[in-house]
Amino acid sequence: MSFLNFIGGRWVPAKSGRTFPDRNPANQDDVIGEFPSSGPEDVDAAVQAAKKAFPAWRKVPAPRRGELLFRTGEILTRRKEEIARAMTREMGKVLKEARGDVQEGIDTAWVHGGEGRRLHGYSAPSELPNKAGWTVRAPIGVAGLITPWNFPLAIPTWKSFPALVSGNTVVLKPASDTPHCSHLLVECLIEAGIPPGVVNLVHGGGGTVGTALVRHPDARVISFTGSSEVGREISAVAGRMLKRVSLELGGKNAQIVMDDADLDLALEGVLWGAFGTTGQRCTATSRLIVHRKVHDELVGRVVARAKKLRLGDGLDEKNEVGPLINRERVRAVQEYVEIGKKEAKLLCGGAPAGEGALKKGCFYRPTVFDGVKPAARIAREEIFGPVLSVLTVGSLDEAIACLNDVEYGLSSSIYTRDVNAAFVAMEELDTGIVYVNAPTIGAECHFPFGGTKSTGNGHREGGHPIYEVFTEWKTIYVDYSGRLQRAQIDNRKAPGRKR
User: Fold this and answer.
1) Among 18, 35, 58, 440, fewest CB within 10 Å belongs to which?
2) CA angle, 153 as apex, 147 and 154 as ends, to 5°?
3) What domains does the chain contain, in order, with CATH numbers?
């Protein structure tokens, strides 16, 4: 089946006529479809269409823009199972996770549809008599959205829905590993009644389409989720053009387990955090920092359970772990495992899984290393696969220092029954998200999402802070005194003197 770009309200091929295949990572022989291999000329057409549509769209009252998101949420709800199955086939995550991904998109529609009736500014007293002042939010223009493959429905909604309700128009560049999910999302927006040119979809590689979008002078906002390496390049290019840039980048997240923790609960948390989505989350639990008093018991149980996790096609609901996204990721994970074998003790996994029904897929066995030192590469670098590094500590202070001692600061977790220890961790952990007695994954779309250090550039997705990305502040003054008032000059005259 052949798919198209969506530009200016029409489905169109890439101007080059070239396409690329979208393959099922659980079975590389299964081709979902052919998608346009677009170039800078396609990006320019999409940006120009979005620019043309912007003046009319920004004048649509924000509550009406929100109503369009509510309709989109209703359509996503009706199509939830269909989209979830398409996602599992395209991205590989098991079906229950794919359903959760679609549900997050639905929830995001409800959250940001409601913001159409808020989009709060604020007012404050003027320092002069007979003068008023207040602030409003204004849209910026064309928003370029570059999204990853691991949450191929949720993350495009995280970006596009607040951008749209703010009054911006959108050019969406989805990951080339998961173009079909974005196609389905755009179908839902079209059915909801999105006007021509307000949403545009351009498929293709990051080096061509993504770069062209970042460099386009009329794309005034860039929102990117992906690697820190690419994020730095985007920041450099877009910064020179004085664009608004939001970057959601890498993570090296850790779960702390103290000696007083509920080990049954901690076990479930680390298994879900490390091996859910096959470890392909920016919030995945990549490190387990465990108190030495409970190390042997907990790690033994983690390994026993990890060995029993059932790998396979996510459309079979008996399976617990799906494939990695592609062969390149299998090779990259294996390279890190080979490094890990020289740095620590391999307890389980450590190899691709390609026997029987798995032979045509991109499967990798859940892997656990023990005796990992804080300076080890597998303890510091983002692997983005089902690989867990276990580090042993003797105190809360040591655990917090160990967790913070990486370049990333996205998500962290602590398991403890000690309320004092929990509050110390909440204060001292240098991450944008902190969980207590829960794994490092599980963010909700109405709260801010993002991190510190190399995890991003300070912006947050989710919740109300996302509007700092997609709106400009406009301050309005109305002087109804009927005379010239010179602010700080006149308001500092001696008390009692005539003005």
Assistant:
1) 18
2) 85
3) 5-249+456-476 (3.40.605.10), 253-436 (3.40.309.10)
Catalytic site residue from 90, 97, 104, 248: 248
Q: For the sheet containing 471-479, what is the strand order?
A: 123-125, 131-139, 471-479
Paired sense of beta strands 131-139 and 123-125, if any: antiparallel
Q: Using CA of residue 423, residue 429, residue 432, residue 436, what is the dihedral sign?
A: negative
Given 97, 115, 188, 282, the catalytic residue: 282
The verdict on whether 104 is a catalytic residue reads no
Say if residue 499's pLDDT is above 50. Answer: no
* Beta pairing partners, 369: 346, 389
Active site residue 382: no
Is the model's pLDDT at 172 over the cut of 90? yes
In 140-284 the beta strands, taken as DSSP E runs, fall at 142-146, 169-173, 199-201, 219-225, 244-248, 253-257
Tracing tokens 């298994």 back to the chain, one arrives at 271
3-state secondary structure of 470: helix
Query: What pLDDT, on a 0 to 100 scale, did the predictor assign at position 269?
Result: 98
**Which tokens is 455 given?**
């995890």
pLDDT class of 494 with cuts at 50, 70, 90: low
Backbone angles phi and psi of 64, in degrees to 5: -70, -35
The amino acid that residue 129 corresponds to is: P
What would the pLDDT profile of 66-93 be if each residue is shown by its tens digit?
999 999 999 999 999 999 999 999 999 9
Distance in angstroms (rounded) separating the CA atoms of residues 176 and 186:
16
pLDDT of residue 493: 65
User: If you ran DSSP here, which 8-state letter would residue 209 be given?
Assistant: I
> What separation in angstroms does the CA of 134 have from each of 119, 121, 123, 240, 472?
14, 7, 4, 31, 14
